[in-house]
Amino acid sequence: xxxxxxxxxxxxxxxxxxxxxxxxxxxxxxxxxxxxxxxxxxxxxxxxxxxxxxxxxxxxxxxxxxxxxxxxxxxxxxxxxxxxxxxxxxxxxxxxxxxxxxxxxxxxxxxxxxxxxxxxxxxxxxxxxxxxxxxxxxxxxxxxxxxxxxxxxxxxxxxxxxxxxxxxxxxxxxxxxxxxxxxxxxxxxxxxxxxxxxxxxxxxxxxxxxxxxxxxxxxxxxxxxxxxxxxxxxxxxxxxxxxxxxxxxxxxxxxxxxxxxxxxxxxxxxxxxxxxxxxxxxxxxxxxxxxxxxxxxxxxxxxxxxxxxxxxxxxxxxxxxxxxxxxxxxxxxxxxxxxxxxxxxxxx
Length: 348
Ligand code: CUA
Fold this sequence. Notes:
By secondary structure, the chain is of the alpha+beta class. It folds into 3 domains: about 10-35 and about 65-90, no CATH class; about 100-205, Cupredoxins -  blue copper proteins (Immunoglobulin-like), CATH 2.60.40; about 215-330, Cytochrome c-like domain (Cytochrome Bc1 Complex, Chain D, domain 2). It has helices spanning about 15-45, 65-95, 200-205, 215-225, 265-270, 295-310, 325; strands at about 100-105, 110-115, 120, 125-130, 135-140, 145-150, 155, 165, 175-180, 190-195, 250, 260. Helix 4 packs across helix 6 (about 295-310).
């Protein structure tokens, strides 16, 4: 910050300027109208004050033009607010297709961020300049709110649910990250920094995280470890739906409804499998509630997503799943977990 006082925080995202222009419009309209109303109150209080006990006002004909003016002008101003606000809302609600995905998990009292390449950060987020970033966020406990004033980005982070937000940083530097939802004793300490780096510098930072395993790869290990492939087979018809090519597709349920297999659907299917049973299958999957953390879920989701991106998805029955999964023994379901070894990436 150059000046000692700024009316608005620094603008560091593509949307920041749009939000500020709307805010200025709202402030200007509100100020002009407040001032006009207060001046008129004063003026009329003096002009039409009671001068004697017996004074009675004359009947006043309704001036149609005036009535129309003070209905139509504010209506027009409000419509501008609505249309302008809605267009910014839609802009902020729809991440571009090429946005990079980053996961955010809030918990009392820290922000955990996770890159697809595997890098994990606490109370920090490193992102490249000029690239749209899409955050998929959830909470381990209570409601938090991911707030980066310089990006004009504030979005609630809710337990048991995924919310998404996106922004495109337009300025390199370090920016404040706050929690904007009162979440307990150390709410005020739930702060961090977003580092916007030049793309080359970001690549170096990303490469420096050797030892981190990509989300897809740790998700695959977890998938094996939890013995998911016992039922979700890909080589032959299994007792449970084949997950190859599932992500983003509509799925028909026993009840006849259709759901899109998005992040929220997969999360629910792991934690509460009986909520939505795919048509043609039995409700036999055990719940993994309490067995997997929010971060585990993100890894499993990324792994399942990756199954849909295999180029050879035309023949999903062969070779679309890494051989490691096929080699899995017949060890039981989640109950055998205590005997198994937790995949390396899970520690933390
Ligand atoms: Cu988290 Cu306030």
